[in-house]
Amino acid sequence: MALAGAVLWLKPQGLWLAATLAVSQFLIWMLVARNYALAVIFITAAAIIMASGGHAVENIAGLLWARAVDIIIGCTIGIDVLLVTTPRVVAVTVPQELAAALRAAQDLLKFVATGHVVSTGAKRARRNLRHRAIVLLTAYEIGAGARGPGVFAEALRPAVVEAQRLR
Questions:
Q1: Cα gap 159→43, rounded to integer Å
Q2: Nearest CA to 152 among 94, 98, 87?
Q3: What does the alpha-carbon distance between residue 159 and residue 112 come to, in Å, rounded to a whole number?
Q4: CA 2 to chain centre
Q5: CA–CA separation, 107 vs 129, rounded Å?
Q6: pLDDT digits over 132-156, tens only?
Q7: Phi/psi of residue 24, each to 5°?
Q8: Can you tell me the distance from the alpha carbon of 16 to that of 23, in angstroms, rounded to the nearest whole number?
């Protein structure tokens, strides 16, 4: 808001306005992937400058206040949606699914050890291992996004990656 206010106070027009927006746009593109919080400073400033339509703004404080209220409302809605849609509890825990995937790998290895890799049982064990790997990955993704157990699920990431390689 302060950056937008400073630019509007300078009342850029013509090439200065175009240069200001070009620099702002460049900074947005450079920052948005790495540090969105920093990029938002320039996104907000660029949006307010563009909304002024290149005209001198008589009531800069009023424009900035209106934009601040819009931001507060948008953030409140965004946070509410996040709280409603984020899983609170993981139905099946990652350790349980990791154990099931390892049991499926053990079942398949019995066929590999005996050389019966094309038998019906080996095909069934291979299909079960692929299924368990998919279920494990799904449990991990849900668990990593959940509040509370998310940190624990994230700590198991190396084991999940290695179990995925077994298929």
A1: 40
A2: 94
A3: 22
A4: 28
A5: 9
A6: 998 888 888 877 766 555 566 677 8
A7: -60, -45
A8: 10
